[in-house]
Structure of ATP-dependent clp protease ATP-binding protein:
Amino acid sequence: MLENLTDYAKQAVLAAKAEARFGGHKYISTEHILLGILGDSNGLAAKILNSCGIDVNVSREHVMKLIGIGGGCVGLSCEDLRFTYDAKNVLDFSLKHAKSLGHDYVDTMHLLLGLLQGTNGVVTQLLESQ
């Protein structure tokens, strides 16, 4: 599932894991993936959002308010955290989008497309709020 990621996409997924851990969550959700994407202003997805008038810093604050602080994951490393069902679907959708575009890699743009297709609509809420 995580093979074929570009360096930016790998960085976004690692950042998602770190966001989950830092936020005290015992899982990696679609919101964490979005935070991972928003955390790198050099990534293609962040550039796309910026070009659409989406302020990445405001968006990060909005998402962090949505997910809140978890109950804690003391003693858990990032490797112990698991993706939620929806987050796994986003990763699957991202790979499908990449393949449909003829790409043999998954970049942050594909992760963003996967989030837009995802069921919980965090990205849609974010886009509508700005």
The first strand starts at residue 27 and ends at 28. Residues 7-129 form a domain with the Double Clp-N motif fold (CATH 1.10.1780.10).
